[in-house]
UniProtKB/TrEMBL annotation:
Lineage summary: Bacteria, Pseudomonadati, Thermodesulfobacteriota, Desulfobacteria, Desulfobacterales
Presence of the UniProt keyword Membrane in the record: yes
Short name of any one Pfam family annotated for the protein: MFS_1
Gene3D superfamilies linked: MFS general substrate transporter like domains (1.20.1250.20)
Keyword Cell membrane in record: no
Membrane spanning residue stretches: 12-31, 51-69, 81-100, 106-126, 138-159, 171-191, 229-251, 257-275, 296-314, 320-343, 355-374, 380-399
Keywords linked to the UniProt accession: Membrane, Transmembrane, Transmembrane helix
Name of this protein: OFA family MFS transporter
Major facilitator superfamily (MFS) profile domain segment(s): 12-404
SUPFAM superfamilies referenced in this protein's UniProt entry, alphabetically: MFS general substrate transporter
Superkingdom of source: Bacteria
InterPro entries per record: MFS, MFS_dom, MFS_trans_sf, Proton-linked_MCT
Length: 423
Protein backbone atom coordinates (compact mmCIF):
# COMPACT_ATOMS: atom_id res chain seq x y z
CA UNK A 1 0.00 0.00 0.00
CA UNK A 2 2.86 2.38 0.81
CA UNK A 3 4.38 1.77 -2.63
CA UNK A 4 1.13 2.68 -4.33
CA UNK A 5 0.66 5.74 -2.14
CA UNK A 6 3.96 7.09 -3.38
CA UNK A 7 2.68 6.94 -6.97
CA UNK A 8 -0.64 8.76 -6.46
CA UNK A 9 0.58 12.28 -7.19
CA UNK A 10 -1.52 13.88 -9.91
CA UNK A 11 0.66 14.35 -12.99
CA UNK A 12 -0.03 15.27 -16.59
CA UNK A 13 -1.74 12.07 -17.64
CA UNK A 14 -0.50 12.38 -21.22
CA UNK A 15 3.03 11.94 -19.92
CA UNK A 16 1.91 8.55 -18.64
CA UNK A 17 0.65 7.75 -22.14
CA UNK A 18 3.92 8.95 -23.68
CA UNK A 19 5.97 6.70 -21.42
CA UNK A 20 3.63 3.81 -22.11
CA UNK A 21 3.93 4.24 -25.88
CA UNK A 22 7.73 4.31 -25.62
CA UNK A 23 7.65 1.06 -23.66
CA UNK A 24 5.26 -0.66 -26.05
CA UNK A 25 7.22 0.33 -29.14
CA UNK A 26 10.30 -1.28 -27.63
CA UNK A 27 8.44 -4.39 -26.52
CA UNK A 28 6.93 -4.79 -29.99
CA UNK A 29 10.38 -5.61 -31.32
CA UNK A 30 9.75 -9.16 -30.00
CA UNK A 31 7.92 -9.86 -33.26
CA UNK A 32 11.03 -9.24 -35.38
CA UNK A 33 12.55 -12.60 -34.41
CA UNK A 34 12.39 -14.03 -37.94
CA UNK A 35 15.15 -11.59 -38.93
CA UNK A 36 17.57 -13.49 -36.67
CA UNK A 37 16.81 -17.07 -37.78
CA UNK A 38 18.95 -17.27 -40.94
CA UNK A 39 21.94 -15.30 -39.51
CA UNK A 40 22.03 -17.55 -36.42
CA UNK A 41 21.91 -20.70 -38.54
CA UNK A 42 24.74 -19.41 -40.71
CA UNK A 43 26.84 -18.22 -37.76
CA UNK A 44 26.57 -21.28 -35.49
CA UNK A 45 25.29 -24.13 -37.63
CA UNK A 46 22.15 -24.59 -35.56
CA UNK A 47 19.07 -26.00 -37.25
CA UNK A 48 16.22 -23.64 -38.21
CA UNK A 49 13.94 -25.56 -35.82
CA UNK A 50 16.33 -24.94 -32.95
CA UNK A 51 16.66 -21.23 -33.59
CA UNK A 52 12.94 -20.57 -34.05
CA UNK A 53 12.25 -22.39 -30.77
CA UNK A 54 13.93 -19.42 -29.04
CA UNK A 55 10.98 -17.30 -30.14
CA UNK A 56 8.59 -19.93 -28.80
CA UNK A 57 10.23 -19.89 -25.38
CA UNK A 58 10.18 -16.08 -25.33
CA UNK A 59 6.44 -15.96 -26.00
CA UNK A 60 5.67 -18.77 -23.55
CA UNK A 61 7.57 -16.99 -20.75
CA UNK A 62 5.94 -13.73 -21.82
CA UNK A 63 2.44 -15.19 -21.42
CA UNK A 64 3.20 -16.56 -17.95
CA UNK A 65 4.86 -13.34 -16.81
CA UNK A 66 1.86 -11.25 -17.91
CA UNK A 67 -0.38 -13.14 -15.49
CA UNK A 68 2.02 -13.01 -12.54
CA UNK A 69 3.16 -9.41 -13.05
CA UNK A 70 -0.44 -8.23 -13.34
CA UNK A 71 -1.04 -9.34 -9.78
CA UNK A 72 2.25 -8.02 -8.44
CA UNK A 73 1.74 -4.54 -9.87
CA UNK A 74 -1.43 -4.15 -7.82
CA UNK A 75 0.72 -4.54 -4.70
CA UNK A 76 3.90 -2.62 -5.44
CA UNK A 77 2.81 -0.29 -8.23
CA UNK A 78 3.28 -0.39 -12.02
CA UNK A 79 6.52 1.63 -12.14
CA UNK A 80 8.58 -0.86 -10.15
CA UNK A 81 7.24 -3.82 -12.13
CA UNK A 82 7.89 -2.03 -15.42
CA UNK A 83 11.45 -1.10 -14.43
CA UNK A 84 12.17 -4.70 -13.44
CA UNK A 85 10.68 -5.81 -16.77
CA UNK A 86 12.84 -3.36 -18.69
CA UNK A 87 16.01 -4.45 -16.91
CA UNK A 88 15.25 -8.13 -17.53
CA UNK A 89 14.42 -7.50 -21.18
CA UNK A 90 17.63 -5.59 -21.81
CA UNK A 91 19.67 -8.09 -19.80
CA UNK A 92 18.22 -11.13 -21.56
CA UNK A 93 18.67 -9.76 -25.08
CA UNK A 94 22.12 -8.38 -24.28
CA UNK A 95 23.37 -11.63 -22.73
CA UNK A 96 22.20 -13.46 -25.86
CA UNK A 97 25.22 -11.92 -27.59
CA UNK A 98 27.41 -14.35 -25.62
CA UNK A 99 25.42 -17.42 -26.65
CA UNK A 100 27.61 -19.96 -28.44
CA UNK A 101 25.28 -22.87 -27.73
CA UNK A 102 21.56 -22.94 -28.31
CA UNK A 103 20.62 -23.60 -24.68
CA UNK A 104 22.25 -20.40 -23.49
CA UNK A 105 20.24 -18.55 -26.15
CA UNK A 106 17.08 -20.21 -24.80
CA UNK A 107 17.95 -19.07 -21.27
CA UNK A 108 18.82 -15.48 -22.16
CA UNK A 109 16.64 -14.35 -25.05
CA UNK A 110 13.99 -16.96 -24.31
CA UNK A 111 13.50 -17.11 -20.54
CA UNK A 112 15.05 -13.92 -19.11
CA UNK A 113 13.94 -11.56 -21.88
CA UNK A 114 10.56 -13.31 -22.16
CA UNK A 115 9.82 -12.75 -18.48
CA UNK A 116 10.98 -9.15 -18.76
CA UNK A 117 8.77 -8.47 -21.77
CA UNK A 118 5.73 -9.93 -20.03
CA UNK A 119 6.37 -7.95 -16.84
CA UNK A 120 6.78 -4.68 -18.73
CA UNK A 121 3.90 -5.32 -21.16
CA UNK A 122 1.17 -5.62 -18.55
CA UNK A 123 1.81 -2.28 -16.81
CA UNK A 124 1.11 0.47 -19.40
CA UNK A 125 -2.39 -0.64 -20.35
CA UNK A 126 -3.54 -1.24 -16.77
CA UNK A 127 -2.18 2.16 -15.74
CA UNK A 128 -3.43 4.28 -18.64
CA UNK A 129 -7.05 3.13 -18.46
CA UNK A 130 -7.15 4.38 -14.85
CA UNK A 131 -6.10 7.85 -15.99
CA UNK A 132 -8.57 7.93 -18.91
CA UNK A 133 -11.89 6.45 -17.73
CA UNK A 134 -13.67 8.61 -20.30
CA UNK A 135 -11.45 7.43 -23.21
CA UNK A 136 -10.74 3.81 -22.41
CA UNK A 137 -11.35 2.61 -25.95
CA UNK A 138 -9.05 5.21 -27.49
CA UNK A 139 -6.27 4.68 -24.95
CA UNK A 140 -6.48 0.90 -25.14
CA UNK A 141 -6.26 1.08 -28.93
CA UNK A 142 -3.25 3.42 -28.83
CA UNK A 143 -1.32 1.27 -26.38
CA UNK A 144 -2.07 -1.97 -28.22
CA UNK A 145 -1.27 -0.41 -31.59
CA UNK A 146 2.11 0.81 -30.36
CA UNK A 147 3.11 -2.77 -29.64
CA UNK A 148 2.32 -3.69 -33.23
CA UNK A 149 4.26 -0.73 -34.66
CA UNK A 150 7.38 -1.69 -32.71
CA UNK A 151 8.40 -4.35 -35.19
CA UNK A 152 8.14 -1.88 -38.07
CA UNK A 153 10.28 0.68 -36.24
CA UNK A 154 13.05 -1.74 -35.28
CA UNK A 155 13.25 -3.80 -38.48
CA UNK A 156 15.67 -1.44 -40.30
CA UNK A 157 17.71 -0.96 -37.12
CA UNK A 158 18.11 -4.71 -36.68
CA UNK A 159 19.10 -5.24 -40.32
CA UNK A 160 21.73 -2.48 -40.10
CA UNK A 161 23.18 -4.00 -36.92
CA UNK A 162 23.30 -7.52 -38.38
CA UNK A 163 24.92 -6.33 -41.60
CA UNK A 164 27.55 -4.21 -39.88
CA UNK A 165 28.24 -6.01 -36.60
CA UNK A 166 26.98 -9.58 -36.98
CA UNK A 167 24.07 -11.22 -35.26
CA UNK A 168 25.69 -11.75 -31.84
CA UNK A 169 26.94 -8.19 -31.44
CA UNK A 170 23.51 -6.99 -32.57
CA UNK A 171 21.93 -8.64 -29.55
CA UNK A 172 24.22 -6.65 -27.25
CA UNK A 173 23.34 -3.31 -28.83
CA UNK A 174 19.63 -4.12 -29.03
CA UNK A 175 19.56 -5.24 -25.41
CA UNK A 176 20.99 -1.89 -24.34
CA UNK A 177 18.49 0.01 -26.50
CA UNK A 178 15.47 -1.98 -25.34
CA UNK A 179 16.46 -1.78 -21.69
CA UNK A 180 17.07 1.98 -21.72
CA UNK A 181 13.86 2.78 -23.62
CA UNK A 182 11.65 0.57 -21.47
CA UNK A 183 13.08 1.85 -18.18
CA UNK A 184 12.83 5.45 -19.41
CA UNK A 185 9.19 4.95 -20.33
CA UNK A 186 8.52 3.18 -17.04
CA UNK A 187 9.60 6.25 -15.07
CA UNK A 188 6.50 8.05 -16.38
CA UNK A 189 4.12 5.44 -14.99
CA UNK A 190 2.08 6.36 -11.94
CA UNK A 191 -1.39 5.53 -10.72
CA UNK A 192 -3.97 8.27 -10.15
CA UNK A 193 -5.15 9.08 -6.64
CA UNK A 194 -8.10 7.11 -5.27
CA UNK A 195 -11.34 8.49 -6.66
CA UNK A 196 -9.58 10.36 -9.49
CA UNK A 197 -11.81 11.89 -12.14
CA UNK A 198 -10.64 13.86 -15.17
CA UNK A 199 -11.72 17.53 -15.00
CA UNK A 200 -15.25 17.97 -16.29
CA UNK A 201 -16.01 14.24 -16.44
CA UNK A 202 -18.79 12.57 -14.50
CA UNK A 203 -18.99 8.76 -14.38
CA UNK A 204 -22.01 7.36 -16.22
CA UNK A 205 -24.72 6.28 -13.81
CA UNK A 206 -26.70 3.12 -14.31
CA UNK A 207 -30.45 3.68 -13.97
CA UNK A 208 -31.29 3.58 -10.30
CA UNK A 209 -27.79 4.66 -9.29
CA UNK A 210 -26.36 1.17 -8.83
CA UNK A 211 -25.01 -1.67 -10.88
CA UNK A 212 -27.67 -4.15 -11.97
CA UNK A 213 -28.12 -7.10 -9.65
CA UNK A 214 -27.69 -9.53 -12.53
CA UNK A 215 -24.14 -8.46 -13.49
CA UNK A 216 -22.00 -11.42 -14.49
CA UNK A 217 -19.58 -12.66 -11.84
CA UNK A 218 -18.16 -15.94 -13.15
CA UNK A 219 -15.19 -17.25 -11.24
CA UNK A 220 -12.52 -18.99 -13.31
CA UNK A 221 -13.71 -22.39 -12.07
CA UNK A 222 -17.28 -21.52 -13.07
CA UNK A 223 -16.19 -20.17 -16.45
CA UNK A 224 -14.30 -23.40 -17.14
CA UNK A 225 -17.54 -25.33 -16.70
CA UNK A 226 -19.11 -23.55 -19.67
CA UNK A 227 -18.61 -24.36 -23.37
CA UNK A 228 -17.96 -20.66 -23.98
CA UNK A 229 -14.66 -20.87 -22.10
CA UNK A 230 -13.44 -23.54 -24.54
CA UNK A 231 -14.69 -21.53 -27.50
CA UNK A 232 -12.36 -18.74 -26.37
CA UNK A 233 -9.57 -21.28 -25.90
CA UNK A 234 -10.06 -22.56 -29.46
CA UNK A 235 -9.93 -19.04 -30.86
CA UNK A 236 -6.88 -18.14 -28.79
CA UNK A 237 -4.94 -21.32 -29.54
CA UNK A 238 -5.79 -21.85 -33.22
CA UNK A 239 -5.71 -18.16 -34.13
CA UNK A 240 -2.42 -17.50 -32.34
CA UNK A 241 -0.84 -20.71 -33.62
CA UNK A 242 -1.71 -19.89 -37.23
CA UNK A 243 -0.42 -16.33 -36.96
CA UNK A 244 2.75 -17.30 -35.10
CA UNK A 245 3.57 -19.87 -37.79
CA UNK A 246 3.99 -16.87 -40.09
CA UNK A 247 5.32 -14.24 -37.71
CA UNK A 248 8.09 -16.46 -36.31
CA UNK A 249 9.53 -17.31 -39.73
CA UNK A 250 8.20 -14.55 -42.00
CA UNK A 251 11.62 -13.63 -43.35
CA UNK A 252 12.54 -17.31 -43.80
CA UNK A 253 9.39 -17.90 -45.85
CA UNK A 254 10.31 -15.12 -48.25
CA UNK A 255 13.89 -16.30 -48.59
CA UNK A 256 13.18 -20.03 -49.02
CA UNK A 257 9.93 -19.93 -51.04
CA UNK A 258 10.58 -16.82 -53.14
CA UNK A 259 14.38 -16.57 -53.13
CA UNK A 260 14.38 -13.11 -51.61
CA UNK A 261 17.23 -11.40 -49.80
CA UNK A 262 16.97 -10.92 -46.04
CA UNK A 263 16.20 -7.22 -46.52
CA UNK A 264 13.42 -7.89 -49.06
CA UNK A 265 11.96 -10.80 -47.09
CA UNK A 266 12.18 -8.68 -43.96
CA UNK A 267 9.55 -6.37 -45.43
CA UNK A 268 7.08 -9.01 -44.28
CA UNK A 269 8.07 -8.08 -40.73
CA UNK A 270 7.06 -4.50 -41.51
CA UNK A 271 3.70 -5.44 -43.04
CA UNK A 272 2.88 -7.77 -40.15
CA UNK A 273 3.81 -5.12 -37.59
CA UNK A 274 1.87 -2.35 -39.34
CA UNK A 275 -1.28 -4.40 -39.87
CA UNK A 276 -1.00 -5.92 -36.40
CA UNK A 277 -1.31 -2.36 -35.09
CA UNK A 278 -4.17 -1.60 -37.49
CA UNK A 279 -5.94 -4.79 -36.42
CA UNK A 280 -5.77 -3.88 -32.75
CA UNK A 281 -7.45 -0.57 -33.53
CA UNK A 282 -9.68 -1.63 -36.40
CA UNK A 283 -11.22 -4.82 -35.07
CA UNK A 284 -12.16 -3.10 -31.82
CA UNK A 285 -14.18 -0.57 -33.80
CA UNK A 286 -15.58 -3.22 -36.16
CA UNK A 287 -16.71 -5.46 -33.31
CA UNK A 288 -18.32 -2.53 -31.49
CA UNK A 289 -20.28 -1.60 -34.60
CA UNK A 290 -21.19 -5.02 -36.02
CA UNK A 291 -20.98 -7.31 -33.00
CA UNK A 292 -18.34 -9.63 -31.52
CA UNK A 293 -19.68 -12.82 -33.11
CA UNK A 294 -19.72 -11.57 -36.73
CA UNK A 295 -16.32 -9.98 -36.18
CA UNK A 296 -14.70 -13.14 -34.79
CA UNK A 297 -16.28 -15.08 -37.65
CA UNK A 298 -14.91 -12.65 -40.25
CA UNK A 299 -11.50 -12.68 -38.58
CA UNK A 300 -11.16 -16.45 -38.85
CA UNK A 301 -12.53 -16.54 -42.39
CA UNK A 302 -9.84 -14.07 -43.48
CA UNK A 303 -7.14 -15.91 -41.56
CA UNK A 304 -8.09 -19.28 -43.05
CA UNK A 305 -8.17 -17.82 -46.60
CA UNK A 306 -4.68 -16.38 -46.13
CA UNK A 307 -3.37 -19.74 -44.93
CA UNK A 308 -4.96 -21.72 -47.76
CA UNK A 309 -3.63 -19.20 -50.28
CA UNK A 310 -0.05 -19.65 -49.07
CA UNK A 311 -0.47 -23.43 -48.93
CA UNK A 312 -2.17 -24.09 -52.25
CA UNK A 313 -1.44 -21.25 -54.68
CA UNK A 314 2.03 -20.36 -56.04
CA UNK A 315 2.97 -17.14 -54.32
CA UNK A 316 4.29 -13.95 -55.82
CA UNK A 317 6.15 -11.37 -53.77
CA UNK A 318 3.09 -9.10 -53.79
CA UNK A 319 0.84 -11.99 -52.78
CA UNK A 320 3.20 -12.89 -49.97
CA UNK A 321 3.09 -9.36 -48.58
CA UNK A 322 -0.70 -9.19 -48.88
CA UNK A 323 -1.03 -12.50 -47.04
CA UNK A 324 1.22 -11.24 -44.24
CA UNK A 325 -0.92 -8.09 -44.04
CA UNK A 326 -4.00 -10.25 -43.50
CA UNK A 327 -2.22 -12.37 -40.89
CA UNK A 328 -1.02 -9.32 -38.99
CA UNK A 329 -4.45 -7.67 -39.16
CA UNK A 330 -6.25 -10.76 -37.88
CA UNK A 331 -3.65 -11.44 -35.18
CA UNK A 332 -4.09 -7.89 -33.90
CA UNK A 333 -7.85 -8.37 -33.98
CA UNK A 334 -7.66 -11.39 -31.70
CA UNK A 335 -5.59 -9.36 -29.23
CA UNK A 336 -8.30 -6.70 -29.22
CA UNK A 337 -11.45 -8.84 -29.21
CA UNK A 338 -10.71 -11.84 -26.99
CA UNK A 339 -10.20 -9.85 -23.75
CA UNK A 340 -13.40 -7.93 -24.48
CA UNK A 341 -15.36 -11.11 -25.13
CA UNK A 342 -14.02 -12.64 -21.92
CA UNK A 343 -15.23 -9.61 -19.96
CA UNK A 344 -18.64 -9.60 -21.64
CA UNK A 345 -19.24 -13.32 -21.30
CA UNK A 346 -17.92 -13.84 -17.77
CA UNK A 347 -18.04 -10.36 -16.22
CA UNK A 348 -15.52 -7.80 -15.03
CA UNK A 349 -15.23 -9.04 -11.45
CA UNK A 350 -12.72 -11.78 -12.31
CA UNK A 351 -11.70 -10.77 -15.82
CA UNK A 352 -7.98 -10.79 -15.00
CA UNK A 353 -8.00 -14.38 -13.81
CA UNK A 354 -10.47 -15.54 -16.46
CA UNK A 355 -8.56 -14.01 -19.35
CA UNK A 356 -5.29 -15.17 -17.81
CA UNK A 357 -6.50 -18.77 -17.98
CA UNK A 358 -7.33 -18.31 -21.66
CA UNK A 359 -4.12 -16.39 -22.40
CA UNK A 360 -2.08 -19.38 -21.23
CA UNK A 361 -3.02 -21.04 -24.51
CA UNK A 362 -1.21 -18.25 -26.34
CA UNK A 363 1.90 -19.61 -24.64
CA UNK A 364 1.00 -23.15 -25.67
CA UNK A 365 0.57 -21.98 -29.27
CA UNK A 366 3.92 -20.22 -29.10
CA UNK A 367 5.67 -23.38 -27.92
CA UNK A 368 4.22 -25.58 -30.65
CA UNK A 369 3.41 -23.61 -33.81
CA UNK A 370 6.73 -22.00 -34.87
CA UNK A 371 8.73 -25.22 -34.59
CA UNK A 372 5.96 -27.16 -36.34
CA UNK A 373 6.17 -24.83 -39.32
CA UNK A 374 9.85 -25.75 -39.69
CA UNK A 375 9.40 -29.46 -38.97
CA UNK A 376 6.68 -30.23 -41.52
CA UNK A 377 7.56 -27.62 -44.15
CA UNK A 378 5.96 -24.27 -44.78
CA UNK A 379 3.29 -25.38 -47.27
CA UNK A 380 2.12 -28.23 -45.03
CA UNK A 381 2.14 -25.94 -42.00
CA UNK A 382 -0.01 -23.38 -43.81
CA UNK A 383 -2.47 -26.12 -44.79
CA UNK A 384 -2.73 -27.34 -41.19
CA UNK A 385 -3.19 -23.74 -40.02
CA UNK A 386 -5.92 -23.17 -42.60
CA UNK A 387 -7.82 -26.23 -41.39
CA UNK A 388 -7.41 -25.09 -37.76
CA UNK A 389 -8.74 -21.64 -38.61
CA UNK A 390 -11.71 -23.28 -40.34
CA UNK A 391 -12.48 -24.92 -37.01
CA UNK A 392 -12.43 -21.42 -35.52
CA UNK A 393 -14.98 -20.38 -38.15
CA UNK A 394 -17.30 -23.25 -37.19
CA UNK A 395 -17.00 -22.41 -33.50
CA UNK A 396 -17.86 -18.77 -34.25
CA UNK A 397 -20.98 -19.79 -36.16
CA UNK A 398 -22.39 -21.58 -33.12
CA UNK A 399 -21.05 -19.21 -30.44
CA UNK A 400 -23.35 -17.45 -28.00
CA UNK A 401 -22.91 -15.87 -24.58
CA UNK A 402 -23.47 -18.04 -21.48
CA UNK A 403 -26.87 -17.58 -19.92
CA UNK A 404 -26.18 -18.57 -16.32
CA UNK A 405 -23.44 -19.51 -13.93
CA UNK A 406 -23.11 -23.32 -13.70
CA UNK A 407 -24.84 -24.44 -10.54
CA UNK A 408 -26.55 -21.06 -10.08
CA UNK A 409 -30.11 -19.92 -10.62
CA UNK A 410 -31.38 -19.45 -14.18
CA UNK A 411 -31.06 -15.67 -13.83
CA UNK A 412 -27.71 -15.60 -12.05
CA UNK A 413 -24.91 -14.36 -14.23
CA UNK A 414 -27.08 -12.48 -16.70
CA UNK A 415 -26.01 -9.02 -17.74
CA UNK A 416 -27.50 -6.29 -19.90
CA UNK A 417 -26.49 -6.47 -23.54
CA UNK A 418 -23.25 -4.62 -24.23
CA UNK A 419 -23.03 -2.76 -27.51
CA UNK A 420 -21.68 -5.19 -30.05
CA UNK A 421 -21.78 -8.20 -27.73
CA UNK A 422 -22.43 -11.59 -29.26
CA UNK A 423 -25.58 -13.38 -28.34
Amino acid sequence: MEANAQETKVVNRWLVVGGSLLMQLSLGAIYTWSLFNRPLVEAYGWTPGDTVFTFSITLACFSLAVIIAGRIQDRIGPRKVAVIGGVLTGLGVGLASFATNIYFLYLTYGVIAGIGIGAAYVTPLATCVKWFPEKRGLITGLILAALGVGGMVFKPVILIFIENFGVSQSFLYLGCIYGVLIVTGAMALSVPPAGYRPPGWTPPVVKGGAAPAGSRRFSTAQAMRTPQFYMLVVWMFFGSAAALMIISVAANIGMSMLGLSLAAAGNAVVTIALFNACGRLGWGWISDKYGRKPSILANFVLLSLAMFYMALIPMTYAGFLVATCVVGFCFGGLAAMLPTLTAEWFGLANVGNNYGAIFLFYGVAALTAPRLSIAIGFENAFLVAGIACSVGVLVAIFARAPGRIPGGTPQEGLTPRVSGASS
